[in-house]
Amino acid sequence: MRPPSSLAAPRRGGLRARSGSAGSGATGSGRWARLCPWPGADDWQAWFLGVAAVVDCGHMFVPEKGVLTVSLRVLLLGTGSPRPTLERANTGQVVFAGGRPILVDCGAGVMRRLLEAGLDPARVTLLFLTHLHSDHTLDYAEFVLGSWAMGRGELAVYGPPGTACLHRLLLLEPYADDIAYRVSVGRSPAGVLDVAIHECPLEPGGIYDDGSLRVRAAPVIHSAPTLAFRFDYAGKSLVISGDTAYCPALVELARGADVLVHDACLAPALALEPNPLWGNLAERLRHHHATPAEAARVAREANVRTLVLTHFLRGVYEDATFEEAEHEFDGEVIVGRDLLEISC
Ligand SMILES: [Zn+2]
Ligand SMILES: [Zn+2]
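That is the input. Now the predicted structure with zinc ion docked in place:
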C-alpha cells in the first residue's frame, strides 16, 4: 500500500502552498482537496499516509506536531542569492527522508526559515554543503551553535574539500571561548566539539548510505568546487544541483529522478537589467549559473518528473521564468519560493 506519488504530505505549521504556475507536487491542501473534496480531507490524508507508513515501511516516524509522514520530500528554505531580499533567504533546503530532516546548504536566513517552518533545528543531525560560497554557508555557525543550544547532541557534515577549514574558521576558532563558557556551565560538548566532517572528493560517487537513505554526489560547473547531491529513499529520488551552469555530469546524476531542484540564477530579473552600477551581470555569471532554459534542458535530458527552479536574483520575473523553462521541458515546472514543499 503506497500513497500516490505526487500527493503532498500533510501541511506543517506555518507553511503555505505556493508554486509558480504548476505545482501538483507542491504542499498544501490544494491538490489533495481536488482529489478528496470533502470536509476534513487533510485529516484523511494524514490517516492514509500513516497507514501507508506502517504497512509499507514497517515503521513510522512521528515528526513535528504529531503528523505522520512517509517517503521523500523537500522543503525550500531559501531560494535567493547573495544579494539580500526580504522575500527570499539565501540558499538552503531541508530534505525529509521518511520524516528525518536533512539540511542542504545553510545561507543567511535559513535558520530563521527552519523556525518559521515549525521544524525543531535540534532534530537536524545531517548537513550537506554543495559548496562553500557565502550565500550557502553564512548561517553555518548560527545553525550549529543554535541547534546545539536547543539540544542537538550529534552532527555530521558532508561537503567539498575545504569544509573542515570552514568549520574551524567559522565556528571553532571565533567561538572557542563562547563554547568553553557554555560547556563550563553544564552544557554537554557533544554536537559541537565532535562534529564529524566528511570532505567528499570532486568526482561522481556515493557519499552516504545508512541502509535506507543513499546519497550520491557529482561535481558540477561553478566558480568554486561544487557538488550536486542525489537522495534516494523508499523508491523515490531527489536531486539538488547546487550552483551550476548547464552540466552533463548533472544530467547523469539526475537521470530518472522524481524531482530536480536546479539553479536558475540567470532567470529574467530586475537585477539582470543593464545598470551603470554593476554593468552586464548576466554576462559575468553565465559560465557559473544557469538560465531557466538550461535548467529545463537538464531536466529534459535526465527525464525527471518535476523541475524546481531556485537561486533567484532580486526582482525575478516569475511568470517569464516559468514560461522559459516550460518551453524546454514537458514535465512539471515549479518556480521555487521560500517555504514551498514538494513531494517526490
Ligand atoms: Zn555559488
Ligand atoms: Zn549561490
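The chain has one domain: 67-343.
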